Amino acid sequence: MMCVFFFVSVYSLLVEIMLQFGGGPM
Fold first, then answer.
1. DSSP for 1-26?
2. How far is 19 from 22, CA to CA, in rounded Å?
3. d(CA 22, CA 4)
4. What b/e string do you get for 2-20 counting C-beta neighbours within 10 Å, with b at 16 or more?
5. pLDDT, position 23
6. Cα gap 22→14, rounded to integer Å
7. Does the predicted model carry a pTM greater than 0.85?
8. CA-CA distances (angstroms) from residue 7 to 14, 21, 25?
9. What is the sign of the dihedral through the CA atoms of 9, 11, 14 and 18?
10. Distance between CA atoms of residues 26 and 2, nearest Å
11. How far is 2 from 17, CA to CA, in rounded Å?
12. Span 2-10, mean pLDDT?
């Protein structure tokens, strides 16, 4: 269960970085 939370955290961080670069559908 802990690994799932970690994965979601990493995904959220990736999305934030993508948004900073201005390249993200979401």
1. -HHHHHHHHHHHHHHHHHHHHT----
2. 5
3. 27
4. eeeeeeeeeeeeeeeeeee
5. 63
6. 12
7. no
8. 11, 21, 20
9. negative
10. 25
11. 23
12. 93
Task: Give the pLDDT score at 9.
Answer: 96
Token couple for 1: 């269960």
C-alpha to C-alpha distance for 18 and 3, rounded to whole angstroms: 22
* Residue with more model confidence, 25 or 3: 3
Give the span between the Cα atoms of 14 and 8, in whole angstroms. Answer: 10
Distance between CA 6 and CA 19 in Å, rounded?
A: 20
pLDDT digits (tens, 9 = 90+) for 8-25: 999 999 989 988 887 655
